[in-house]
Batch of 2 targets.
Target 1
Amino acid sequence: MTYMGGFQPSITDALLADVARKVQLSPTNYRLAIERYRIINEWLDREGSVLRGKVRLMYPQGSMATGTTVSSRLEHDEFDIDLMAELADEFRGWHPRDILDTLFDAINGEEGSRYHGKVERMTRCVQVQYEGMHIDVTPATLIAGRVARVSHICHSKREKPRAEDHRPVANPWGFGEWFKDQMPLPLSEGARMSTLAKASEAVPVEEQPELHERSLPVIATQLVKRWRNKKYDGREGRCPPSVLLSCLIGERSGHLLAAGKVQRSLHATLLDLVIYILAQFEAAERVGRLIHRTNPACPGDEVLTDRWPAAGRDQRQFIDDLEDFAAKLDLLGRDDLSLAQRNELLSDMFGERAAALAMEDLRKRLDEQARGGNVLHRLGTGAVLAAPAIAATPTAKPASSGVRAAPRSTSYGSDEG
Amino acid sequence: MAGIAAQIAAMRSAFPAMRLFAEGRWGCAWEGPLVGLGRPYIVRVTHTVSATLGRCDLGWRSIIPRAQVISPDLVAECGGRPPHVYGIKPHPDLCVFDPHAPHREWRAGMLIAESYVLWVARWLASYELWTVTGKWSGPERHPAPKDAAATAPCPPAIPATAASPAAIGRVAEAEGTEGSGPILRAATEGRLPSLLLDW
């Protein structure tokens, strides 16, 4: 991570940033996701498509819109990419089941065509399967007279009677914009991801910002989601939805931003957010209720907690999980931990693979720095500066007065002797 | 060559927590906390500039600085011998530079605080990463057996005489060392002083 004004990240911050980098879409997969998004948009508009000329706009939602995509699997990469397909006004009167089935037919196409057999009709979306990735396309129609992009989406369980289908109100675009508005600017100057260019049909998504170009609560959101995925791996039932976690993180970040308080440490940011989330659940439990949140961009209609927690025991379990998370994060911040102890904690919180990849990244950076004679040390303690952005600095020029570059040296001596 | 006073001043400025605990015309030694990545280690750094100390020929020890990790016990911690050390009892010496490198990584004119101590810190970082990944970081060289023999510590010499208080006094005066009884006793007896093996 790059820190402005000569501020240098701790080893804890560097490792957390490495974990976040390892669990998010790689630049290659990010570009692949964007390309697939573009192709699906073109495919829906192909000659012969039942939706030709009827998709007014496609835009990313969820983690792609907020820049917080993480792998949903622990031991291999599997990413869920969410898109909205805003349909023409003529679909406003359609039954939700018919809309979903029509979208399914349009993407699945005829036998032998591009997506045929790789598409699944879900309750609220149509899912296209790829290796290591699936793209969920959610059909929606704009609600006339509402603020930007407030829409009806579709809810239709195939196994349930048609009469139970309904059209929930949602504004995922508004949520994404609200979330970004709550985030402080990154510590390094960098562009904030813009996800909607209203003039075009397929909204272009900008290049994925480098990790150091994101603000710390955004990176912390990725880590919270990864921890949630690890915690609920193998558990029955639903897990706390990403949109609820993002909402709570947005709330806290917005409060701090309004108060002019901006953290300069990823670890401190993450711990603060986890403690805030925990406090919100505890507050609900104290008054004998389940936590309740609505989309700040659609507060009257869109309940973010409509499917989870379903009961007090779901909430209690998550409170226990959050207490454990906060305690382990607190321990991770201690100065006297060995790297092996840090590795154990990171494995426990984010998975062995993510921790191992982060450790190997750190080792490779130090290896490259040492071979190039570019190792920087903190004066007073000698601590190696382990931040990626500093590793990428092309010269060994010290970043601040408290830092010194070491001359090149070779570790010598026999392993046996 | 950087004088002992210059070395001490540079260390005090860059690493004030490194405590100077022995000093004389023979050289000086510090002990204190150094960090590789996060955890502090207690490290002893010894710098000798004299070829002899009392009746003892310091040999290679007069040429290069030395560093030993006093705490934690690395051998116990990693269940064996870490890479790039020599001698393990009671504290291994860290091999932080190549004494045979063509471009001479360590030169007598260097300030320890600006070079050697930073190499020690990188060794500590590499050690920590090695305990987790099993791989060392940065350039490394494993000497051929002949090479190794040239740099391995010599066995302590057999004491020539017992150290009387007067003999110790004479060595202290000659070496400019007064604060270290164990060093002077060893040097007077012709043994390698414990500072140079271990305190």
Target 2
Amino acid sequence: MGAGKTTAIESLSEIEVVRTEANNSERHIADKATTTVALDYGEIVLDGEDKVRLYGIPGQKRFDFMWAILKKRAKGMILLVNSDAADPIAQMLTFIDEFRELYDRGGVVVGISRADVIDGPTLAEYSEALERTNPDLVIPVFTVDPRDRDQMENVLLALVLNIEMRALFGMATAASL
Amino acid sequence: MSAGLHTKPAVVKAASALLSEMKDATSSLTYAALLTDDGFDVARLPGQTDGARFAGMASSMQALGDAVAHELKIGSCEYIIIASGKGYVVQLRVPGQELVLSALFDNDATVGNALAISRSFAQKMGDLLK
């Protein structure tokens, strides 16, 4: 919670974002007024033709039924990690495990937010933790400001590229069998 | 608000008492819960449902109801009904509070009857917390 998921969808979306927010009663965990309790929805057209549907989902465990619903439908995931949270590396690894099927089916990239306001782990430490725990996975890690449309678009394009490259790679492997 | 209603013992006690009263008054009521807008369980009737998980789901549904009403420009969502072969879920906000009442009725209730009872107890909870 508080990584900037709703803000990221707001930055990227070309339509008015569908938001489902409630007042946040866990201000001691994340000091923000509201929190997403179902999903955020936005859309963006890439390269003038491919419409990407963007779903932001709540991070708290009590909403894990939403994870299951959206996990089934998604092609890829941008995992936003709040560098300012308690043990952000462990949080990242937990969500990578939780959403592993999305990696297997499409692709995953990690965006580290609030890295500029806190003396948290370095980008290299996030990458090393991923390599150590998931040596077979190719998951790019970026720092990102979810408020910045250009930065978010770069992360999204990296995800699309990651999905397409891995799809090509998978096809080449299948063809060579 | 700095702390949720689920962390306030007086609210939890009042919510539990209200749900017991609702159960005593309504033979067709099989489950009911009061939860915060952001998905924390405040009180619930005994049942096989995982209260924490149901609170999360019910708050999502409430927020989706609000999002649909907003999208269709029909004002705010007053209540949500889920009808199934075995009963109805009626869900609505407690007036003036960041609280949701979600109640499951069996088929002995009509939708109108279930809605009227739920409205009346949601109002009662709102009055209690004034």
